[in-house]
Amino acid sequence: MGPLIDLLPLSYTESVVVVGAAVLGVAAGVLGALAVLPRRSLVGDALAHSALPGVAIAFLVTGARDPASLLVGAAIAGLIGAFMMVGIERTSRIRPDAAIGVVLSSFFSLGIVLLTYIGTTGNAQQAGLETYLFGQAAGLLERDVNVMAVIAALSIACVVLALRVIKTTLFDRSFAASVGVPVRVVELATTALLVAAIVIGLRAVGAILMVAMLIVPTVTARQLTHRLGPLLALAGVIGASVGATGALLSSRAEIPTGPVIVLVGTAVAVAAVLLAPGRGVVWRWAHRRRERRSALSSGVLIDLETALHAGPPPTVDELVLASARPRGDVRRGLRALDRAGLIERDDDRLRLSESGAAAAHAALDERRLWSAWLEHGWRLDLGDAREPDPRDLRRTLGDELTDRLLGFDAEAAPS
Amino acid sequence: MSDAMIIVLTAGLTATALALLGPFLVLRRVALMGDAVSHAVLPGIVAAFLVFQTRAPLVVILGAAAFALICVLAIEALRGTGLVASDAAIGLVFPALFALGVLGIHRYAANIHLDLDSTIYGEIAFAPFRTLDLGGVEVVRSVLIMGVVAAVNLGLITLLWKELKVTSFDPDFARSIRFSPTVVARLLLIAVAVTAVTAFESVGAILVVALLIVPAAAAYLMTDRLVAMVAIAVAIGWVSSVVGYAGAVEVDASIAGAMGLTAAVIFGIALLASPRHGLIARAVRRARTRRAVERALAEERGAQGAGA
Amino acid sequence: MAPALDIPALEVAHLTVSYGSTPALWDVDATFPSGAMSAIVGPNGSGKSTLIAAALGLVPSDSGRSTIFGRPAKEAMRRVAYVPQRESVDWDFPITVREVVEMGRYAEAGWLRRISRSDRAIVDGAIERVGMAPYSRRQIGQLSGGQRQRVFIARALAQEADLLVFDEPFAGVDARTEAALLSLLAQLRDREGRSVVMVHHDLQTVRSMVDWVLLLNVRAIACGPVASTMTPDNLRRVYGAADIGAPAAEGAAWVP
Question: Is B110's pLDDT higher than 70?
């Protein structure tokens, strides 16, 4: 990572932190998807917390704060925690959420007891705990970043190589098992990869905030793509950018790195959920609103046409009564129709304009076609599993099929 | 009262307050909402300090409750979009709020005498030294506060017993008789937040989760009655307090940690040895059934052999 | 008792509900008479459960209204006992048969108050009526599918509602229990004049036990007395090609 660190137009320490956060972001982004997609996001939380006793025991055994042995200890404890979680879930009536909670807090309690025990036997300060919980990005050394980069590269390589197997297992576990994928092994391996990501993150952002690092990139990427390969790549990129941006911001403002990275990430994820094109909340809200309005105005149009058919031009009140819709809806529908020039007002009585009559007939045809589809659609013998858009049958079915459908309808109609 | 008794009493009352609520979280499959809420209250504590410059319990509790509500509403809003699964929604919201709290503490720690240690790890060993003067009588602050919270929680679940039961068991039906599951869920999580924030001082954020979930999960393995489940959870809380304290003193380690660890060991025992749902009981039952079936089959075959 | 249509037990008009952009119900008009046993029938995905939930105001509708005994649904929910499908129920929940049936009295007791002595008597009666008295202290998960459904019907009985609404009450229930429960519902109708509306998939039962039927496939295809509504033609319109329950299936023996 040396050349990259030299390349950045920042001071050396800043560069180390920024590159470290970016490496963490890539790893957490790609590997976090393995937890988020099968809806086990909070497993990351449990694994991060269950690493604590591992750190403490490594410390007790080696008697020194050697980063490598602490990481190994964390990884082993994390894996044991993962095993226990699966074991509790499989063998008892305890649900996944409670199993995660039990493992998380049991391991953490054990960790605290061990740490305080170490503290009182005089070997070291308890300060290690704070580092573990909140990370200490500022204290990252180039050597640490290199270790992180190697672990990240190896783990991501595993994911890339096993992409197809992982995809099958994540999507449909029993199918994967039925075609001979060693499902248990794959699940164990993905958990191990997750532990690797967490081990990378502990130094930089700490246990509590690690869960956000695992989730943010996948949630964000999921709003932008539907495919697993691109999703993983995108999650890596997003994780890296979030990490680097957060690290930079925090070093400029001289505030703790972990929380800033997490807040930046959460903002990015929320923005994606709100604004993602074709999917985001804002987009869907606008789309829904448009659809509702057009459904309402065409409904009111048909009501008016029906009323005109039945008797003299109605007043608004009479139309409200005839249409069984709330008054406000009718008024809103009428306003829209007015704007489109589809109705004419004759004192307080309502009529259809010429284009309005045409539109009403088109809407009625549409409605008849939809009825015909529900009733006779099965007779069409569609070669494929087409499910046409109910709002635009003619276009989605094609003219020929539509005409046949109307033919069935005419046959069935009482003559 | 001796110091040891005060500590055990504080711990027991804390565990009681939490164990009264835990069973409902476990049964509603929202155990991790307890985790989320107890982390998310941190900015509330900080905000209460910043705005009112006080550590008065009521102000802190209000601040915490406000952020618990924010946390719950934010998680519901994210989940409601249909774009984020509920576990991911939890995992997005609470670290963000927690991060906000950490930043707040870091920024203003100097002027408000608030440190992470007291909220994250807690220190129950100091409980005997913090006393209040109540009309001339000296009372231990933590015993008083935790006693009140435990009593309030007891009152709450007694009062809302049937509401909690019906909305947890059959939310669709509850809605049809106008018992809103959402309202009950929010009340429950606010109670969790208030309890958590008062418990922080004694046992810290993460052990709050331990005492909230682990006794309840262990009790769930031991009984098929709701009343019994709550009672057993509370009992486990007390056993954890007593044994945890004794153990901690023995090896000179964190009392709160030892309490959590004791609860974990009890869970392990329940998992293995619970009379109905334990692994041993189930293995014995299965073996017995298999033997019975084998015997019956053998007899049948024997009868056929004799007949032939 | 003759089905009474002057004040229907349940009536929906112009009910339209959509999930996303696909309509689940489209402009449905339907009337269910009081004092009768009615069924809602239709293929999978035809919106049967949605119709019930929307009519009771439990899911929001895009347009339309629904009335229960002539009053807006929201005001008249006290008179309804609703038995939803069993998907949301947690069978491991630590709760006994009796406690489940007691829930039928919760609405009467209201928030925060305990149920009274007279409520307990009603609960006992309901448990007795479905034949679950010997099991009243069992945990709900230790019962068979048929026994579980008896418990939920007992809960509905305990509500003492005038209209009982069931969503697929006999899914996963053995034939003996189904017959017993159906005759219990018929008793409720005949002796006490209660109204029953249920989503049901077995056309055979509907033909023999039910008075009134709504054929639903997103739209209401037909609604009326069973004899005149369940015509082969209407059934074909509801079910399309797979016209289960058409006369052939009903009368003719299967010839190899």
Answer: no
